Amino acid sequence: MTTNGKPKFAMYWAASCGGCEIAVLNIHEKILDVDANFDVVFWPVAMDAKYKDVEAMEDGSILLTLFNGAIRNDENEHVAKLLRRKSKILVAFGSCANEGCMPALANLSSVQEMVDTAFSTITTDNPNGIRPQVTFTVPEGDLHIPQLYPAVRTLDQIVPVDYYMPGCPPESHQIAAVIDLVIQVLQGKAELPPAGTVIGAGNSTCCDECKRKRNEKLIKKFERIQHVMIDPELCLLEQGILCSGPATRSGCNALCPAAGSPCIGCYGPADGVLDYGSRLMTAVASVIDSNDPDEIEHILDGIPDPAGQFYRFNLAGSLMRFSKSAWQG
Amino acid sequence: MSDQFEPVIIGFTCNWCSYRAADMAGTARMKYAPNVRLIRLMCSGRLDPTFVLKALAGGADGVMITGCHPGDCHYVSQNYKAMRRFLLMRRTLKQMGVEPERLKLVWASAAEGAIFTDEVNKFVEQVRALGSLHWPTSGEGYEQMFAIPEHMIAKEVTP
Q1: CB-based contacts of B47, cutoff 8 Å, min separation 6
Q2: pLDDT at position A126, please?
Q3: Contact of A244 with A263, CB cutoff 8 Å
Q4: Residue B158 domain flag
Q5: Between residues A316 and A147, which one has the greater pLDDT?
Q6: Any CB–CB contact under 8 A between A113 and chain B?
Q7: In the CATH scheme, what is the code of domain A8-102+151-186?
Q8: Average of per-residue pLDDT across B64-71
Q9: Which of A222, A290, A279, A213 is nearest to A247 (CA)?
Q10: Would you state the pLDDT for residue A328?
């Protein structure tokens, strides 16, 4: 407790885009409740604080930490471990911390390939081929930048996590509900769910929340959404649009399919799903309308990037976690 | 014991055909490579790709999926689903750097013990030639993969 008596709140971004912070601010006037009930001690995107300030805090002195972002480098790992020590409740907030999300798609390549793409492609103005160095000596001493790991990991692959809040980003109404709950717990009006619970989301699949009409699915050809006129009423998967709804956790009210765009799976695996991509492959393969291997192969050609399609958000959290090139270098 | 690499193969069999084929091979005392560990499912259609990925991520070098011949499925058409999943999974795994030859689909009826043993032997040799997969999520590879010198971690992020 600080001098003002309020419990402490922290939020951190590791390998992420910043969308999760925007989603938190998107709860509108409820953000004032956060300020009224919490003392914000560490939130790099919103206020100035140094790691050494956090290091100086007592262990377990932060009540609630929302950690978004995956673990890409040793700085991410250090702060994850630091905040785990200092926090009573650590929430894996958003898809990156939960399952890797977009940053984890780099797990399909080696660090070398990734750096080559960033610093030596035709669109990069880098005539001397300069590459970032982990250590660089200047007259004042050695400078260090964080070391990239060969693959992206999820938060719970580094430290134990109390609650999981999925979404890319988590929907603002879900964030508001979770913040309400924590405030009620503080006032003794509610109890925290058991540790390890997925909070701020449903337990079913995106399809359950989707309003589109569903019949038996029989697919002869996978279509790109920009190439067809879609029926506004009918299930997208039935129309040959690869929709990730069958494997994805509910909680977003099926926003994308409602807008005519397929679910891309940002809420992560539904309850009981061990490997998101496997579940989606199971569903997609089932609805292909052919029993002839050659024809099936031809239909599957309509999915040009299966690993990227089925593990778009989930590669770091999947069973395989990375490709061979990531660990062979 | 010879020094040659002995691959670990997980084989999924269906209750009604391919498991019976393996059973028949056993009762007829046909010999086949001991590298394959068979797991019986009620149907090849029960084969969730999760099982295959779990086997590979857990240290298996290859996975064999077996079922009834097309048209003979005890549950009418589920072996076709197994075939589609197999074809799709093979594509996904290829992108992850797992050679397509580490996955095999075999149809064997209850009377085809000889075909079953023959296919197992061929597959074991095929995977042996590819060598060990040794995915880092099994064994100690994972720690090694993320091991970086301690002094660097301390220097870079602490002021």
Answers
A1: B12, B41, B65, B82, B85
A2: 86
A3: yes
A4: no
A5: A316
A6: no
A7: 3.40.50.700
A8: 96
A9: A279
A10: 80
**Nearest Cβ partner of A277 from B83, B92, B98?**
B92
pLDDT tens sequence across A8-21: 999 999 999 999 99
Chain B residues within an 8 Å CB radius of A269: none
CA dihedral A194, A197, A200, A203 (to 10 degrees): -120
* Structure-token pair, residue A325: 């090139």
Residue B111 has what pLDDT?
95
Residue B78 sits in a domain of what CATH number?
Answer: 3.40.50
Interface test with B, best of A319, A321, A325 (most B CBs within 10 A): A319
Which tokens belong to A61?
Answer: 């002195």
Is pLDDT at B135 greater than 50 in this prediction?
A: yes
pLDDT at B149: 53
| Overall number of domains in chain B | 1
Q: Considering the domain boundaries, does residue B16 fall inside one?
A: yes
CB B112 within 8 A of CB B21: yes
Q: How far apart are the first and last CA of chain B?
A: 56
For B146, nearest residue in chain A (alpha carbons) = A149
